[in-house]
């Protein structure tokens, strides 16, 4: 089954996840970014690319938010049947920005990453997958 998604993000991780999505035989209907590196990758892959305001109105299966610090407008979220976000910290403990820095400043021995549904407020959606790892001294 081929799935279609909108990919939103601005870092190398956005490109890596987008490429993994494509390598699995799925389709990216649009890539929303303000990063020139992500834009170059998307154009090189033959994908439609622009800013959040440029996301087309067509419906997709998924909205994938990866390394994205922008709150996604409801009108864009409504274009997907489901939406998921990558967060660089363990939720709900480290919601918001700079989660890795807060973990280090608080002297934590472990940190993690979380994939969660985009629902409710920022970083409040249902956790789908979370992976914890040790922080080296």
Describe this structure in words.
The longest helix is centred in the N-terminal third of the chain and has 12 residues, at 12-23. The model has no long low-confidence stretch (mean pLDDT 94). Helices cover 23% and strands 31% of the residues. The chain has four helices and seven strands, in the order E-H-E-H-E-E-H-E-H-E-E. The protein has 137 residues and is α/β, with parallel strands linked by helices. Strand 2, helix 2 and strand 3 form a beta-alpha-beta unit. It is globular, with a radius of gyration of 15 Å. It has helices at residues 12-23, 36-44, 74-77, 99-105, and strands at residues 4-8, 27-32, 49-50, 60-65, 80-87, 110-117, 127-134.
Overall shape? globular
The multimeric state of the shown protein is single chain
- Please summarize the sheet with the most strands: 7 strands, mixed
Number of helices: 4
Record keyword descriptors for this entry.
137 residues, seven-stranded mixed sheet, 23% helix, globular
Please give the structural blueprint.
Layout: E1 4-8, H1 12-23, E2 27-32, H2 36-44, E3 49-50, E4 60-65, H3 74-77, E5 80-87, H4 99-105, E6 110-117, E7 127-134
Parallel strand pairs: 1-2, 1-4, 2-3, 4-5
Antiparallel strand pairs: 5-6, 6-7
